[in-house]
């Protein structure tokens, strides 16, 4: 398992290329993992904690226990052959030692990468003090080193989404990269100007989340972003189609063509 997971982690890292970003359509269970992994061009997957939590009937923000979160990740990982990056929220521990232990367990379950957040609760504010947040990233890197798996750490910066200041966001991004993150996931980069500024001031690879109001994907690639994800948006997309189909069928309407989709 370690050798296979290590190889997947190396592959996942190689897919983070500025200008040719890794596009990850977020998944939350075995069937969504298989469907997305089977789409042309897909080379890696990422889970979304919001979607995983809601699929289990609990709120996002570590509504799952660490055991449940690792088990849910294992279901996704075991369903596909491509690398899987797991949204591991805050690491399911109040301290860095616990983060290190939990990340080691997640790697043992086959995770090739993780997201780890710097906000304390379910909201985007308040945040852990910068030094504390950086130490939590370093703890995740120590877990990777101890297991021999070059885990891809996508360290989330919640400053802007939580109403904080630009300089703090940049300082945190660079601190997390210095602590062992491979890429920083900066929330709140909603315009081309903000994306460009982040890429200019952050000393490493940048990941963003997108939705229909975001900078277009081709422009994000042109600017030099390394990774784009969609978080709970893919769950919303799926549920919107399901609800629309249910409405059409209940009204004795035409059969939606997707009703014949073979999975």
Outline the structure in words.
This protein has 263 residues and is an alpha/beta fold. The protein folds into 2 domains: 2-231, Phosphoenolpyruvate-binding domains (TIM Barrel, Alpha-Beta Barrel), CATH 3.20.20; 233-263, no CATH class. It is 46% helix and 12% strand. The chain contains 10 helices and 8 strands. It has helices at residues 2-14, 30-37, 49-55, 66-79, 96-108, 130-147, 166-178, 192-201, 217-223, 233-250; strands at residues 22-24, 45-46, 84-87, 113-116, 152-157, 183-186, 205-209, 227-229. The chain has an 8-stranded parallel sheet with strand order 1-8-7-6-5-4-3-2. The longest helix has 18 residues, at 130-147. This is 2-methylisocitrate lyase-like PEP mutase family enzyme. InterPro entries: ICL/PEPM, Pyrv/PenolPyrv_kinase-like_dom, Pyrv_kinase-like_dom_sf. One of its GO terms (molecular function) is lyase activity. Keywords: Lyase.
Determine the number of helices (DSSP H or I, runs of at least 4 residues).
Answer: 10
The third-level CATH topology of the largest domain is TIM Barrel
CATH A-level architecture of the largest domain: Alpha-Beta Barrel
Identify low-pLDDT runs. none
Please state the CA-atom Rg, rounded to the nearest Å: 18 Å
- CATH superfamily annotation of the largest domain: Phosphoenolpyruvate-binding domains
> Helicity range of the residues?
40-55%
Give the percentage of residues in beta strands: 5-15%
Oligomer: single chain
Q: Largest sheet at a glance? A: 8 strands, parallel
What would you call the structural class? alpha/beta
GO molecular function: lyase activity
InterPro entries: ICL/PEPM (IPR039556), Pyrv/PenolPyrv_kinase-like_dom (IPR015813), Pyrv_kinase-like_dom_sf (IPR040442)
Keywords: Lyase
Protein name: 2-methylisocitrate lyase-like PEP mutase family enzyme
């Amino acid at each position: 398992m370690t050798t296979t997971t290590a190889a997947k982690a190396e592959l996942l890292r190689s897919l983070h290329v500025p200008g040719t970003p890794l596009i990850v359509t977020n998944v939350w269970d075995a069937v969504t993992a298989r469907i997305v992994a089977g789409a042309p061009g897909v080379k890696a997957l990422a889970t979304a904690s919001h979607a995983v939590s809601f699929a289990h009937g609990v709120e996002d923000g570590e509504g799952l226990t660490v055991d449940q979160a690792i088990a849910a990740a294992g279901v996704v990982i075991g369903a596909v052959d491509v690398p899987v990056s797991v949204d591991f929220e805050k690491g399911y521990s109040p301290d860095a030692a616990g983060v290190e232990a939990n990340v080691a367990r997640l790697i043992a379950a086959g995770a090739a990468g993780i997201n780890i957040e710097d906000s304390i609760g379910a909201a985007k504010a308040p945040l852990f003090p910068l030094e504390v947040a950086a130490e939590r990233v370093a703890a995740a890197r120590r877990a990777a080193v101890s297991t021999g798996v070059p885990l891809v750490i996508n360290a989330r910066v919640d400053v802007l989404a939580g109403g904080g200041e630009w300089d703090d966001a940049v300082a945190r991004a660079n601190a997390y990269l210095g602590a062992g993150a491979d890429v920083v996931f900066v929330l709140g980069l909603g315009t081309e100007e903000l994306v460009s500024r982040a890429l200019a001031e952050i000393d490493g690879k940048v990941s963003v989340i997108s939705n229909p109001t975001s900078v277009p994907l081709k422009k994000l690639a042109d600017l030099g972003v390394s990774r784009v994800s969609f978080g709970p948006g893919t769950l919303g997309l799926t549920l919107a189609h399901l609800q629309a189909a249910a409405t059409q069928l209940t009204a004795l309407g035409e059969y939606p063509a997707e009703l014949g989709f073979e999975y």
